[in-house]
Design brief:
- By secondary structure, the protein is mainly beta.
- It has three domains: 341 residues, YVTN repeat-like/Quinoprotein amine dehydrogenase (Methylamine Dehydrogenase, Chain H, 7 Propeller); 41 residues, no CATH class; 48 residues, Thrombospondin type-1 (TSP1) repeat (TSP-1 type 1 repeat).
- The protein contains four helices and 40 strands.
- The strands form twelve sheets. A five-stranded antiparallel sheet has the order 1-2-32-31-30, with no helix packed on it. Strands 5-6-7-8 form a four-stranded antiparallel sheet, with no helix packed on it. Strands 9-10-11-12 form a four-stranded antiparallel sheet, with no helix packed on it.
- The longest helix is centred in the first third of the chain and has 9 residues.
Length: 595
């Protein structure tokens, strides 16, 4: 963020938005792969050495894989700590803030950065200079770990090759809060004994942990994890189990999370928020444990020591742990209670779409504070929504920003708010976009200014224009009307409403007029908006139509009734072409002829 605030770039307006002003591009990628600022490169190249790259390819990796992909990028005081895959030979560097080309030192990146660029990871540096990383720490990608290094504390990790501690995790984020470091991830649920299911998790370790002796040596003794619940309530709740992104609001002790359904199921997304108090309550609750590999996971019935941290000045929470306590620490790490969100139902839900990234801004409105969420999607759009516990405002969509040209789709890779610049920075595969948080100037009338329900904007009666609260001439003359969700031109796919009741209708049967039973439905629940897809399927159903009867063709003449003298022949036809139905006329005439 400190480097972004120094960039004074010319804006290029080339991104269209549905019912919104145009968004300027901060910087875009050149054919040479560098980001340009008025003709001067601001990119720092950091690639693998030739010998390292060749060694990577000799192990069966492709040329694309054998590059250097940065997977850790953290500000540590006046230094930037960066780690890259470095052609499957992870390496970390400390660089001087403001002069990224100056490398202060280079250290081994194993257990701090993944080998494979496709493996996700997360890391955080504490105020004491300790690095807490959650990543895969071996070449084959089979040894995930939460690992502490650097600083003065001893290196610690989660138990190696123990799927009960970490079972094929996908790490999302990490936060340094008080006495703990929290990790958010999703993994295969070990306690779910009916097929393979993924759960969203929050893990926790004590920063003052120094590991065990004999048992759990060089291993966390305070590692715990709990399940995060994000679901729609009902007789059979609908669960969003796969955590994709989180955002921490330290001012409110709130953590927002994006949850989706499994990639093999129908796409659906939700946003839930959690209080730190609810998280602490779950970690203070009973453990769930498994007596042996064949038994089910049950709540611990006996009081189990909850491995508390103590203060940061202590030697450690496990300074005087007994062998029995260390045995308990090996078995008791999964919490029995689930972390519940602040609201029974998610703050935002969206079907047929998967969210990818999330940031939240606290906005001072006319009478209260509002939480405004910017949600990135897999299609490359950003949904601007209100986060509110008020039912009438829950899940309000304020805007949808279309960032890519028509027909092109890619997921949002990163979102970052720079409050000093009042801007939202959006990371895509080939460019960085800068979007102003406040665009009140685009609403020219009082009706449009108040109707948009944007917490950033209000109508200034003296200036007679739409302004922010900071730009208003007088607080008492600045008004908002955020009582319900606005009607916006969001991209919405059409859905059919309910069928109408059956009723009589007419139809023409050749020259005659008959009757049918008809019903219809409309594509208005909701109607397609802003480029959304039309409904697919029949809009009218017809049944029980009356049908007049019709004669079949005459059959052939039957043989003569005698071989000599006077005889007769017979032929026939039937009223079944078609058979009269639902009040239709029967056939007129003879069904049998003789000669």
């Amino acid at each position: 963020p400190k480097t972004l605030s120094d960039l004074s770039l010319e804006y290029t307006e080339r991104v269209s938005i549905c019912s919104s002003p145009k968004i300027p591009i901060l910087a875009e990628e050149t054919p040479q792969g560098e980001y340009q600022r008025r003709g001067t490169s601001i990119a720092i190249e950091w690639g693998p050495e030739e010998d390292t790259r060749k060694a990577c390819q000799s192990k069966g990796k492709t040329e694309v894989e054998c590059q250097n992909y940065i997977r850790v990028l953290l500000i540590n005081g006046k230094k930037i700590f960066a780690c890259g895959t470095n052609a499957f030979s992870p390496t970390c560097t400390n660089r001087q803030l403001g002069n990224l080309s100056h490398v202060l030192d280079k250290i081994n990146g194993v257990a701090r950065c993944p080998y494979d660029p496709r493996h996700n990871s997360t890391a955080v540096i504490t105020s004491r200079g300790e690095l807490y990383a959650a990543t895969v720490i071996d070449f084959s990608g089979r040894d995930p770990a939460i690992y502490r290094s650097l600083g003065n504390g001893p290196p610690l990790r989660t138990a190696q090759y123990n799927s009960k501690w970490l079972n094929e995790p996908n790490f999302i984020s990490a936060y340094d809060i008080g006495l703990f470091v929290y990790f958010f991830f999703r993994e295969n649920a070990v306690e779910h004994d009916c097929g393979k299911t993924i759960y969203a998790r929050i893990g926790r370790v004590c920063k003052s942990d120094i590991g065990g002796r004999f048992l759990l040596e060089d291993t966390w003794t305070t590692f715990m994890k709990a399940r995060l619940n994000c679901s729609r309530s009902g007789e059979i709740p609908f669960y969003y189990n796969e955590l994709q992104s989180t955002f921490y609001l330290p001012e409110q002790d709130l953590i927002y999370g994006i949850f989706t359904t499994n990639v093999n199921s129908i796409a659906a997304s939700a946003v839930c928020a959690y209080n730190l108090s609810a998280i602490t309550q779950a970690f203070n609750g009973p453990f769930r444990y498994q007596e042996n590999p064949r038994s089910t996971w049950l709540p611990a019935s006996n009081p189990i020591p909850n491995f508390q941290c103590g203060s940061l000045g202590d030697h450690g929470p496990n300074e005087n742990l007994t062998e029995r306590s260390l045995q308990d620490a090996q078995r008791f790490f999964l919490m029995n209670d689930v972390v519940q969100p602040v609201t029974v139902n998610p703050l935002v839900t969206h079907d047929n779409m998967r969210f990818s990234k999330l940031v939240v801004d606290i906005v001072q409105g006319r009478d209260t504070l509002y939480h405004v969420m910017y949600i990135g999607t897999e299609h490359g759009t950003i949904l601007k929504t209100l986060s509110s516990e008020t039912k009438s405002l829950r899940g309000c969509y304020l805007e949808e920003l279309q960032l890519l040209p028509p027909g092109k789709q890619e997921p949002i890779r990163s979102l970052q708010i720079l409050h000093s610049d009042r801007s939202l920075f959006v990371g895509l595969n080939g460019m960085v976009l800068k979007i102003p948080l406040e665009r009140c100037f685009s609403y020219k009338t009082e009706q449009s200014c108040l109707g948009v329900r944007d917490p950033y904007c209000g109508w200034d009666l003296r200036k007679r224009r739409c302004t922010t609260i900071e730009d208003s001439s007088n607080m008492s003359l600045w008004s908002q009307n955020i009582t319900e969700c606005p009607v916006r031109n969001l991209t919405v796919d059409g859905e059919f409403g309910l069928w109408s009741p059956w009723q009589l209708c007419e139809h023409t049967d050749k020259e005659a007029t008959g009757s049918c039973m008809c019903r219809s439905r409309s594509c208005d629940c909701p109607a397609p908006r802003c480029g959304g897809r039309e409904c697919a399927g029949a809009r009218i159903e017809v049944a029980n139509c009356s049908r007049n009867g019709g004669w079949t063709l005459w059959s052939s003449w039957a043989p003569c009734s005698t071989t000599c003298g006077i005889g007769f022949q017979v032929r026939q036809r039937s009223c079944s072409n078609p058979t009269p139905r639902y009040g239709g006329r029967v056939c007129v005439g003879q069904s049998r002829e003789e000669r």
